[in-house]
Amino acid sequence: MTASVPDDGSLPPCAVAAPAAEAGRGRFVLAREWAYVINATAYLPLTHAEVEQHMLHLVNRLFDAVRSEPFDPTPAAGVGARLVEMHCVGRDSIRRSAEVLGKALLNQDELHDVERLAERVIAVLGEMMAGYSEALRGGAQHVGTVIEEGNDVALLRRKLTDQALHDSLTGLPNRLSFRAELAKALRRADPTTGITLYQLDLDGFSLITGGHGDELGDRLLEHVARALKNGVAQEKATVARLGADEFGILVENTPATPAVPTMIERLTEALSEPVYLDGEHGLATSASVGVVHQPDPGIRTSELLSAAELTLRRAKSAGRGQWLLADPELDTRDRETAALAASMPGALETGEIRVGYRPVVWLADGRRAAVEALVSWDHARCGRLSHEECLTLAEPTGLILDLGSWLLSSACKRFQGERDELLLSVALTRSQAADPDLVGLVRRVLDSSGLRPNRLVLGFPGRALAEGGETAENLTVLSEIGVRTIVHGFGAVGDVLFLEDLPVHGIRVDRRIAARQAASESATMRVLATTIELAHQAGMRVSVDGVDTEEQAGFWRAAGVDYALGGMFGDTRSRDRARRAPATFGAWPTTTSSPTSTS
Q1: Are 280 and 314 in contact (CB under 8 A)?
Q2: Measured between alpha carbons, how far is 492 from 16 in angstroms, rounded to an integer?
Q3: Could you tell me where the Low complexity compositional bias lies (predicted)?
Q4: Percent of the chain predicted with pLDDT > 90
């Protein structure tokens, strides 16, 4: 495992505040979620609104009790117990409900200023479990199905509290317990050595469960838990399970504690040892790791965990088995980006995100061939965010499919009434291209807009197509119904060869190559010339992005490229400006199985 720095495709810096929320929104959200749980698991002679109102009353009391000074866990435990009892149907219900309450309290912005919040929450859970114990001993019926009466109260309290604070599969502390341990470790840490937090995410764990089943996956997680504990057995360390395939390690450093790279090597070695869980398949795994080394002792546990999480994300983006040290400057940028992404759905609703169009021209004579639809966001603080920046924000938040659907629908509706034959091009992201509903979406949009299929050009990412699967199937079906398809991100001969059996109408040269514009005698140019020739022989048109000068246009014209996009041909513009431009697309291939050459 090696430390690496991911390619920085960051957004332009801007001071982005977290989305403003009305006071008490966290309480309202928790109350609504709990009301849904109640309605789904039990019969109450109340409407959902009435249940929600009652839940909000209880949640308000719970929050106020946690904030109270001096703190006494008993009032909060009483309210928490009432929430749990309303849908308690078995032993697991207590543990799950306690975890939900604990996480909800720890994740509320309103409570982040509460001193020793994690310890308060654990105290509340412990008191709550003790209340159940005493109720059972007294013969109370509302939790009589959970545990038989007559158990020792102290033993029962310890058992229930342990269930609330530990992962049931591995026996490791859970996130709630780990957070409390972090808070205590920060207070008692040696100021000269401090602590180190490692957050790990197993690489490709979903592939293991998909190929071998959940039962084997659970056994692998148990093995990983043991391996991590063994890897830090010589240190004063706590290992916890933070999520499905995510683990945390807290090391309270001493002068003898190994350096971070050495600790990473230990953990890597522990995880890479194959284990034969079914007697047949030797399984091993690797992990991506985010490391926060010697944080400020005054840091909040929520901020510390957030820094580790952000660092882990950057490590994962660099590939499997990578690790990174936290960088405060990058953490700040990532938090701003996350806040910006969180406000994106609202911007889509209010019209801040708009559709623009940029020309695609025929290099032979500069006439307009098509327009490409792009999104942009006129943000109050950050200014205008480009199409690429909007996609960067939307992809990790899960908004990318909604954004892509909206872009396609909006653009098709605007162009369906045009009298000329100007084509509309829309580039798909990897997620969009692999969406199982893509064909259905395109059919619905074409039907509702009235746009003819042969006027729509959809761009597919080359790397996604090379893997086959849903992406290749989508391209094939869309070509069969008359939609024109191109593949973007090309730059090597092999990229053309894998398209031999796909009904592709055109390719777009990788923008990185266009930006470099290699010298005509370079190896890159010779390979690219071969690629263009092969594409033409297969009946495909070739386009290139990033053409900003006449010199570049001449370069690509001489290279045999058919169409170009870039600053030289105009910036992103409105539909009305786009429609006034002269339009032609030359002899664009029209067959879907074996397009004829028009070069």
Answers
A1: no
A2: 40
A3: 589-599
A4: 34
C-alpha separations of 283 from 207, 231, 241, 370 in Å: 12, 18, 20, 51
CATH architecture of 181-328: 2-Layer Sandwich (3.30)
The angle, 0 to 180 degrees and rounded to 10, between the axes of the packed helices 260-272 and 214-231 is 140
When pLDDT is averaged across residues 297-318 and rounded to a whole number, the result is 90
Neighbours of 565 (CB within 10 A): 24
Using alpha carbons, select from 486, 519, 511, 497 the residue that is nearest to residue 567: 511
Burial (CB count <10 Å: 0-12, 13-18, 19+), residue 365: exposed
Residue with token string 């609504």:
32
Q: Does domain 343-579 have CATH number 3.90.1150.10?
A: no
What's the start-to-end Cα distance of the chain, in Å? Answer: 49
Per-residue pLDDT of 92-120, as tens digits, reads 566 667 667 777 777 676 776 677 777 78
Q: Are 324 and 4 in contact (CB under 8 A)?
A: yes
Domain with CATH 3.20.20.450 in the chain: 343-579
pLDDT at 308 over 80: yes
Q: Residue 80 in contact with residue 144, Cβ under 8 Å?
A: no
Q: Are 527 and 519 in contact (CB under 8 A)?
A: no
Residue 377 tokens, joined: 């966001």
Give start-end residues of each CATH 3.30.70.270 domain in the chain: 181-328
pLDDT digits 0-9 by tens, 424-452: 999 999 899 999 999 999 999 999 999 99
- The Cα–Cα gap between 85 and 554 comes to 75
Q: For residue 179, which amino acid is it?
A: R
Do 286 and 272 contact (CB within 8 A), yes or no?
yes
Half-sphere exposure of residue 526: CA atoms within 13 angstroms, side-chain side: 3
pLDDT, tens only, 362-412: 998 888 889 999 999 999 888 899 999 999 888 877 789 999 999 999 999
3-class secondary structure, 593: coil
**Band of residue 21 on the pLDDT scale cut at 50, 70, 90:** very low
Structure tokens at 425: 């091009």
How are beta strands 195-202 and 484-490 bridged, if at all? unpaired
